[in-house]
Amino acid sequence: MEALTQKKTLVEQAYDALLEAICTGDISAGERLNQDELAERLNVSRQPVNSAIAMLKAQRFVQDTGKRGVVVAPIDQTLFNSIYQFRTAVEPLAVQLAAARMTNEAISLGREIIARGKSHVQSGDHASALQADMDFHSLIYMLSGNIIIADTMNLNWRHLQRAMSEVLSVPGTTLRVWREHDEIFTAMVRSEADHAAKLMREHMEHASPKSLRSARPEDS
Questions:
Q1: Cα 41 to the chain's mean position, in Å?
Q2: DSSP of 105-169, one letter per residue?
Q3: Domain segments of the chain: what residues?
Q4: What are phi and psi of 40, to 5 degrees?
Q5: What gap in Å lies between CA 147 and CA 167, rounded to an integer?
Q6: Nearest to residue 135, comparing CAs of 148, 152, 116?
Q7: For domain 77-214, which CATH number applies: 3.30.230.70, 1.10.260.40, 1.20.120.530, 1.20.120.430?
């Protein structure tokens, strides 16, 4: 983590820095969060760090263990499954809404993201492929025009990123997920909202891993 600069509030910056470190695995599950050390690393006082940790606790990224203090929460299979159940319902709706709001700029951006994702998968850059996956779905949430979908799913994706970061080195990545993304986006470009929603629902059913141990970074 780098020292913070005065752009957002210090609490927001501390939150962003800690969340990024947790989701990318720089701070691992079970690791104790020492407020004094974190404040020194981020070049802030304890107060912004404590406030950021309180926010992360409310969002299930960290937990209070009593004697050991605050630690990074373990990756929770129940939470992971719940997010995928939620996505199966919400993502098709997001696609239906987004299909009516396609612009030339959005089409160009979507196609760029898909091409980037395919390229990263082919080169074996799993971390970048996962980021492209997040970018693809985030574009759909933004285009949906529904701020509840966007805000809720962007936070859920941070939990998913944590889980996927645990298995980035696992071999076997395929282009299947990006072929499905391409089919979904093509239907959206053609304003085939119902068909795009059907494809997204099938995509979610294929994507949901049975367990974190068997998860693949492309399964999203």
A1: 25
A2: HHHHHHHHHHHHHHHHHHHT-HHHHHHHHHHHHHHHHHHHT-HHHHHHHHHHHHHHHHHHHTTTT
A3: 10-72, 77-214
A4: -65, -45
A5: 31
A6: 116
A7: 1.20.120.530
Burial of 7 (0-12, 13-18, 19+ CB in 10 A): exposed
208 has pLDDT over 70: no
Distances (CA, A) of 155 to 16, 150, 159, 184: 12, 9, 7, 23
Task: Note the pLDDT tens digit of each residue in 176-206.
Answer: 889 999 999 999 999 999 999 999 999 988 7
Q: Which residues pair with 196 in a beta bridge?
A: none
Whether residue 1 has pLDDT greater than 90: no
Q: What is the DSSP letter of 51?
A: H
pTM of the model as a whole: 0.78
Instruction: Quickly state the pLDDT bin for 132 (edges 50, 70, 90).
Output: very high
Residue type, 168: L
pLDDT above 70 coverage of the chain, percent = 87
| Rg of the Cα atoms in the chain | 18
What SS3 class is residue 197?
A: helix
Q: Long-range contacts made by residues 153-157, C-beta under 8 angstroms, separation at least 24?
A: 153/87, 153/90, 153/91, 153/94, 155/59, 156/83, 156/86, 156/87
Residues 145-174, mean pLDDT to the nearest whole number: 76
Identify whether the C-beta of residue 41 lies closer than 8 Å to the C-beta of residue 27: no
